Amino acid sequence: MRSEVEKTVIRLNSGSKLPVLGFGTADFPFDRLKVEFAIRTALQLGYRHFDTAMIYGSEPAVGGALMEAIRSETVSREDVFVTSKLWGCHHHDPVSGLKQTLKNLGMEYVDLYLIHWPAKLKEWANYVMPKEEDFGELEMESTWAGMERCLDMGLCRSIGVSNFSCRKIERLMEHASLLPAVNQVEMHPMWRQKKLREFCGEHNIHVSAYSPLGGPGSPWGTKAVVDNPIIRSIASKHKATPAQVALSWGLSKGVSLIMKSFNEERMKENMGALEVKLEKEDVLKIDKLEERKIMRGEFLVNASTSPYKTIQDLWDDEI
């Protein structure tokens, strides 16, 4: 199983190879020792793709655990794939934001750097829930130019976006010298992103799924996916778990998965999704489930200072 995980990769439009199973490190409330221990365990099991972000506060833990493994020659730097993300307070200067991320990680580069959300915040707003006075005027053209500079400077190997609708990527393409390599979005059997996947596929932009199980362990998540009777029935048929069925469905759509569990047995269970082969009828049943987006981004919506006066503005009616 470990070798199977390590060799299951996707080649991005940048030429980089992204491991299809990613290990998420967002933890609220954050516990550095717990995160570092989980990363060490994940490395032993065969995970090689680690997802963090400045706003998670987990960059020092991710960097500490990975660099310890690199120094001990458990893995080489080239063996691991590290993703981090630009928070809104650094949209004015992505190079500065990424340099701070690299300092936090103790690394010379990240493999993938994403714009976390399409929202610019004032420089002081380095926290999760921005206030009305924290919003700045959205200037995605200059922000993306800064992301391209990060790439040119060798601070990252690939650049991309997160939580972008089709329309927002279209607008980005109007001025971008380089297309995003990745769009990381919420995706699971009850929020399937069909339109977005088709759009990104047409432009060779890889879709990476966060909360591929619906975020059952997060403060904002739900167990609706793993408790769904159709998914449970398919799991029973394949002698698999509901989580493995949900993850296998995601893999069948050609996306990579950012999975977050710090429980060793769950980590192993999630890796087992690679061995679950759904039949066409299973996928069709899942594709008919009722949809509802869980991470809606309400914290970026307000009627006065945000560029997004409504949820529909944020998602361009793709919700």
UniProtKB/TrEMBL annotation:
Span-the-membrane segments of this chain are none
InterPro entries this protein is in? AKR, Aldo/ket_reductase_CS, NAD(P)_OxRdtase_dom_sf, NADP_OxRdtase_dom
Q: Which residues bind substrate?
A: 116
Q: Which GO terms describe its molecular function?
A: aldose reductase (NADPH) activity
Residues in NADP-dependent oxidoreductase domain copies:
21-290
**What name does this protein carry?**
Aldo-keto reductase family 4 member C9-like
Gene assigned in the entry = LOC104598507
The record's listing under PANTHER family reads: ALDO/KETO REDUCTASE (PTHR11732)
The record lists the organism as: Nelumbo nucifera (Sacred lotus)
Catalytic residues in the record: 56
